[in-house]
Amino acid sequence: MSVEYDIPLWIALPVSAFLLIGAFLTLTGTIGLIRLRIFYDRLHAPTLGSSWGTGAIVIASMILFSYLESRPVVHEILIGIFVTVTTPVTFMLLGRAALYRDRSEGSPLVPPMDVAPPPSKETTAEPAS
Amino acid sequence: MNRLLPYPLLIVSIVVMWLALTRFSVGQLLLGAGVALVAAQGLAALRPSTPRLRRWDLIPKLIGIVLLDIVRSNIAVARLILSGKRAKRKSGFVAIPLELRDPMGLAVLAVIITSTPGTAWLDYSDRRGVLLLHIFDLVDESEWVDLIKTRYEYLLMEIFE
Amino acid sequence: MSGAILGWSVLIAQLAVAAAMILAAIRMLKGPRAQDKVLGLDTLYITAMLQFLLFGIRTGTSIYFEMALVIAILGFVATVALAKFLMRGEVIE
């Protein structure tokens, strides 16, 4: 069960460590996706995979390919940046969609449309918390 | 400078990215510069107002804080999921009145909050400036309001407003 | 020796990510509500992308990187469209 290219130990160890960290964080995230009961709780679980799960695997890939091609290889960072920038957009949209659907059904689990402060205060200045 | 080269930072970062993706050569440098110029013109056509950065020096501090927080909350949330003590954990919604109004700052705050496991950005009302968050492990509501306001919002307001 | 260490780590990591893909697919099929299914689909996209990166590390070629990038982009567009659909009932207003 060996890889087809030659690498020294000081490359193999950090790459392996980052790979295992990333893979098991991702697995933990999906275990949470299955185990948690409420949708809003489940929304937190996949962020494990999309933050350091992806991050660690991308770092491992960067270390390995920088060694193999004997030049700094950073194109994996594109995936890192892409996932970092797009995940908030998708999860925000999903969260808002779920909130909208729950509100329109009148679910008691979610806060109603007018969370504090009430809309009559609109014109006055916001109190500085 | 302004008409011909809008968004100099964008142009530089696109050229650097282009050279990182390919191998360095004069041809690739020219091609990357051409793509960057077209992209900057396209962006200028879309949105004329340049985001103003007031404090450059605080950006590394913000990045450091965010990376540390993401590592910490990764560990915390992974432990909560694996331990499976559902009865002890309570999740809930928190409404936070924000003073930050700059769209760029709000976008950065959204990225920070969503990519940190344990907090999810659900809704923001831009008329009243109230942010609705869902917190995975909610112990004390006011503690979270303080955390978001002093840790992130203060820095973002320093940087962007 | 060091090749074997990396080989076994990649294998274990791939098995873990494969298990993660199965769990995400279960959530996508089971639901119970539409937003759960979309969340499962998005997670499935992310884990599939990671699986491709791991294949790239196993073979030492960067071909898989392009596939991973394409899957990441497809997953983003699909999830945004689906979330928009859940909210308004139509994708383009």
Automatic annotation (TrEMBL), chain A:
Q: Which residues fall in a compositionally biased region of kind Pro residues?
A: 109-120
Superkingdom of origin organism: Bacteria
Region Disordered: list its residue ranges. 104-129
Q: What is this protein called?
A: Monovalent cation/H(+) antiporter subunit G
Identify the keywords attached in UniProt to this record, alphabetized. Answer: Membrane, Transmembrane, Transmembrane helix
Carries keyword Membrane?
yes
GO terms, molecular function: sodium:proton antiporter activity
Query: Which positions, given as ranges, span the membrane?
Result: 12-36, 48-68, 74-94
Q: Which PANTHER family match?
A: ANTIPORTER SUBUNIT MNHG2-RELATED
- Keyword Membrane annotated: yes
Cited InterPro entries: PhaG_MnhG_YufB
Origin organism is Chelativorans petroleitrophicus
TrEMBL record, chain B:
How does the protein associate with the membrane? Multi-pass membrane protein
Protein name per UniProt = Na+/H+ antiporter subunit E
The cross-references to PANTHER family, in alphabetical order and at most eight, read:
NA(+)/H(+) ANTIPORTER SUBUNIT E1, NA(+)_H(+) ANTIPORTER SUBUNIT E1
Keyword Hydrolase included in the entry's annotation: no
Keyword list (alphabetical) reads: Cell membrane, Membrane, Transmembrane, Transmembrane helix
Could you cite one Gene Ontology molecular function of this protein? monoatomic cation transmembrane transporter activity
Q: Where exactly are the transmembrane stretches of this chain?
A: 6-22, 29-46
| Cellular component GO terms held in the UniProt record | plasma membrane
Q: What family does this belong to?
A: Belongs to the CPA3 antiporters (TC 2.A.63) subunit E family.
Give the species this sequence originates from: Chelativorans petroleitrophicus
Could you tell me where this protein is found in the cell?
Cell membrane
From TrEMBL, chain C:
Q: Does the keyword Zinc apply?
A: no
Q: What is its main location?
A: membrane
Please name the taxonomic classification of the source: Bacteria, Pseudomonadati, Pseudomonadota, Alphaproteobacteria, Hyphomicrobiales
Q: Which domain of life is it from?
A: Bacteria
Bilayer-crossing regions: 6-26, 38-57, 63-87
Q: What organism is the protein native to?
A: Chelativorans petroleitrophicus
Q: Which GO terms describe its molecular function?
A: sodium:proton antiporter activity
Alphabetized, the UniProt keywords read: Cell membrane, Membrane, Transmembrane, Transmembrane helix, Transport
Cellular compartment(s): Cell membrane
| Family (UniProt) | Belongs to the CPA3 antiporters (TC 2.A.63) subunit F family.
Q: Name one GO cellular component term.
A: plasma membrane
Q: What is this protein called?
A: K+/H+ antiporter subunit F
Its membrane topology: Multi-pass membrane protein
